[in-house]
Amino acid sequence: TLEGSRYAYLPSAGLALLFASTAWVSAAESTWSGATDTFWTTPGNWAPGVPGSGDNIIFPNVTMQTVDLAGGLYAIGMLTFNAPDAYALANGTLTLGGNVSQNGAGTVDLNVAVDLGAANRTFAGSGSGVVTFNNPVTDTAAAGARAVLSAGQYVIANNANTIYRWEITGGAIA
């Protein structure tokens, strides 16, 4: 009997409810198709739809490889390029909530501002394509975040970069 015990009986339905309410939720994933036009906000350009805040972004091998952020500010998760051909992102700001990976052979021109989102971010990838930052890479939260280059080839082409803590553990930076 449990009478006088410090332990309580929890029916199995209550236990299941307890575990169901603490389920792990991971970021959604949005993959660029560019099927409609070049604009980030066009639903037909993404599968399954326009990325939400914190979603992981994948740029695969598709025909439309120019992406116009139309001056918007987007908080994303990871940013991954898997294309053998060139990509260009322009006219806006991406605040990273994850790392950047270049796994393709195509060059990537980031003509957008990139904010590290107050955390250290790793820039890596298994591809041979070069990623060029043509706009500032910053940490607007001034949290002392650093950019860690662990693999791949990255070019810092803008003198206005406010990240002075680039740590190079592999790959190449110019």
| Residue share in helix | under 10%
Query: What gross morphology would you assign?
Result: globular
Poorly predicted tracts of residues:
1-24
Q: Provide the residue-averaged pLDDT.
A: 82
Strand order of the largest sheet: 2-1-3-5-7-9-12-14
* Separate helix tally: 1
Radius of gyration: 21 Å
Q: What fraction of residues sit in β-strands?
A: 35-45%
Total strands: the figure is 15
Description:
The protein is mostly beta strands. The chain has 1 helix and 15 strands. Strands 2-1-3-5-7-9-12-14 form an 8-stranded mixed β-sheet, with no helix packed on it. Strands 4, 6, 8, 10, 11, 13 and 15 form a 7-stranded parallel β-sheet that branches.
Features:
174 residues; seven-stranded parallel beta sheet; 15 strands; globular
Can you describe this structure in just a few lines?
The protein has 174 residues and is mainly beta. It has one helix spanning 12-20; strands at residues 29-32, 46-47, 56-59, 66-76, 79-81, 87-96, 100-102, 108-115, 121-124, 130-133, 137-138, 147-149, 153-156, 166-168, 172-173. Mean pLDDT is 82; it is low at 1-24.
Q: Which helices and strands appear, and what pairs or packs with what?
A:
Layout: H1 12-20, E1 29-32, E2 46-47, E3 56-59, E4 66-76, E5 79-81, E6 87-96, E7 100-102, E8 108-115, E9 121-124, E10 130-133, E11 137-138, E12 147-149, E13 153-156, E14 166-168, E15 172-173
Parallel strand pairs: 1-3, 3-5, 4-6, 5-7, 6-8, 7-9, 8-10, 8-11, 9-12, 10-13, 12-14, 13-15
Antiparallel strand pairs: 1-2
